[in-house]
Amino acid sequence: VSVRGVHHLGFAVADLDEAVSTYAELFGARVEHRERVEEQGVEAASVLVGPDRIELLAPTGDDTPVGRFLAKRGPGMHHVAYEVDDVRAALADLARKGVELIDHEPRHGLFGLEVAFVHPDAVHGVLTEVVCPV
Ligand code: CO
Questions:
Q1: Measured in angstroms, how far is the CA atom of residue 98 from the centroid of ligand 1?
Q2: Is the pTM of this model over 0.85?
Q3: Could you give the CA distance from residue 61 to residue 66 in angstroms, rounded to a whole number?
């Protein structure tokens, strides 16, 4: 897969407002987008830190993917997202290499992005997202 660069790092947090404040106070970060997506069980902020981007993810409840992640691992690193020209082509390339995919088709991610997730077992334990800004 040909990658343009890291699009964002995703962090699981317990309290989104608190996390946004922490990054603003410590690193001068500013919120680019903020969104609550009930069907994904997540309230998220896209935050610019200097020229780069992090995604802060808070669960809307305990029985959600991020809620279960927090219960199991606590807050912290959740995923890395690589920017690609074409998510579908990236998935086809990865599938050809026999990589275990979570998403076999591109889907609508947060903030209007087209995304797909690669299983962490295929990438040495790191949940990996490929993303194309639409
Ligand atoms: Co992400």
A1: 23
A2: yes
A3: 9
- CA–centroid distance, residue 96 to ligand 1 (Å): 23
| Of 117, 114, 111, nearest in space to 53 by CA | 111
CA of 25 relative to ligand 1 center, distance in Å: 23
- How far, in Å, from the CA of 9 to the mean position of ligand 1? 7
Residue-wise pLDDT for 90-133, tens only, equals 999 999 999 999 999 999 988 889 999 999 999 999 999 999 98
According to the model, what pLDDT value does residue 112 have?
87
Mean per-residue pLDDT over the chain, rounded: 96
Contact of 121 with 38, CB cutoff 8 Å? no
CA of 79 to the centre of ligand 1 (A): 7
